[in-house]
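Recap from last week: sequence in, structure out.
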Amino acid sequence: MEYKAQTPLSRKDNLIQFGKFVLFSISAGIIQVLVFAIMEELISLPYWPSYLTALIASVVYNFTVNRRYTFKSANNVPKAMTQLGIYYAIFTPLSTWWGDALVGIGIPDYIVLGGTMVINLVTEFAVNRFIIYRTSMNTRIQRKQA
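Predicted structure tokens:
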């Protein structure tokens, strides 16, 4: 893999980057909903373990595709994972707590899950864009196929 210096993003590039992040997040959301449904509907687990398992599955997928295709980063993977891990060390307990509390007062599980996913999308994009990949966007160059 080759590396290049980071180039500044134009307004159009920023919009394309956000669009890619949203599309990959939607696909991660589909994974999250499917895993959540399997855990809650088929295995009959309560909200919080279903949510936590589904969240972990979607985070691993979303990190992988966004690092490679959205932010095109040559950043150190363990460092980037640690930084995202810090975000999730805060987001996960909070979202598990508020999700379980909202379901406990009668709000439907999938409404809570959907709202939490929107909050996750916005806050995770900000963390990725302005903290994790701030100085390493577009530093990854694809190898040319021979």
